[in-house]
Amino acid sequence: MRSDPSILHVDLDAFFASVEQRDKPSLRGRPVVVGGTGMRGVVSTASYEARVYGARSAMSTAEARAICPAGTAFLSPRFEAYRKSSLVVMDLLRELSPLVEQVSIDEAYVDLRGADLEDLEVDTVRKRLERLDADIREATGGLTASAGAATSKMLAKIGSDLDKPNGITIVAPGEEESVLEPMSVRAISGVGPATAARLRTFGVETVGDLRRMTDTDLVSVFGERHGRSLFALARARDDRELTLSREAKSISNEETFERDVHERHVLHREIERIAESVGARAEKAGVFGRTVHLKVRLPDFTALTRSFTTTSPTRDADVIARTATRLLDGLDLPQGVRLLGVGLSGFVAHAQTGLFDLETSADDETEYPEVFAPSPQDEPAPGSDAIDLSTRFSPSPERRWRTGMDVHHPDHGNGWVWGSGRSRVTVRFEGPTTPPGPVHTFAVDDEALSPAEAPSWT
DNA sequence: TCTGGGGTCCTAGGACCC
DNA sequence: TCTGGGGTCCTAGGACCC
Questions:
Q1: Residue A11 known to bind ligand
Q2: Is the pTM above the cut of 0.85?
Q3: Domains plus CATH for chain A?
Q4: Rounded mean pLDDT of chain A?
Q5: Where does the record place the region Disordered (predicted)?
Q6: How long is the CA A449 to C1' B8 vector, in angstroms?
């Protein structure tokens, strides 16, 4: 841990609501709630006027409507406006020191060892933070921030929370443990509702209580990583450095429906729409992913996740959608679906070529004749008989093996097409459930492999 | 009228390899 | 004919953060 209060945490006050009040003078002094305004919306930010009535982040908007007075403004977020102000503030922080870790749109850590200060004494730091506060107000048209400076990230963050809104708290070196001791265990980063509840069963409510638990006990209850971290953080031992740059590890989009969805075809259409957005974001980010994720939340709020990893990285919306659809079709969903999500991870910078790359290659084009299979539109209606194999060789460019098609092989049974090119079609059998079935590659004109009957939906 | 959407990290078990 | 161990990858679920 550091010996000087050189880690700064800055947190913009009631950020979304404050931007709205800044931009619409009629909202100033009035309760403002920003968040989802639909029946299933939740509150992102409540202005301090709304907090008086108990409105809080993460509360359902319905509940906020019930407790806030008439005249409360309920607004949908305007992310573009927030991003703009965020950028202004982050630039001011980088002016203070180039060592900035942005945690979210309204929060960041700054390493003051990179700042141009004569020393890192409490008074010097305080003076500089007062100037920063004035700069933020001026540059953003009146937005305010709260700031904490300390010898570690944890104490800096706790400090920024101690005097909100618009306060500056510097935890002097040596004071860390006494500041921490009386606080709820929830003050420790990594302690959420579940950990707090388990700790309560041991009679632990405050950080002081937590200090009475041994290293061994914490590890046996919470696992190696979490247990050791709790033991150290309870003693204000926090050596975490700032993470100055980070590469995204996954891209995902999800949507909660206004009403639970029971129809498969609606879910399929939603998957296509969400996959489109995921693919576009991956393209913008310049990445290809090897693993496609599906997330489903049921009406009772339980979540199911399924994923599928291939050797061929993709960002093709169509491939993502077909894979996600396959994963969905492996799920029995009699209760309907509350939320649907699609994600991509396992990024590589470039789509690789190789054994499993099923994009058309020059070799394929010269060595193999074109053979076509029915496109999904040609698949039989639910309940009808299997497809007529004679259509496989119909010379229409659309009629080719498509990712996601159902197929049958006399030796391997039923499977689905993972990828296809002009020369080869790769099939995963008995997928996509766990454990994944075997993968086999066939020449496109292999008569043994045939399109199978499309699954029928209820 | 209960409970969003974007992420990260960890755990645990099985497969597989050495 | 008794029984290794470590490492990595994949999958599912869960906790947590803003």
A1: yes
A2: no
A3: 15-79 (3.40.1170.60), 181-234 (1.10.150.20), 250-348 (3.30.1490.100), 362-451 (no CATH)
A4: 85
A5: 373-400
A6: 42
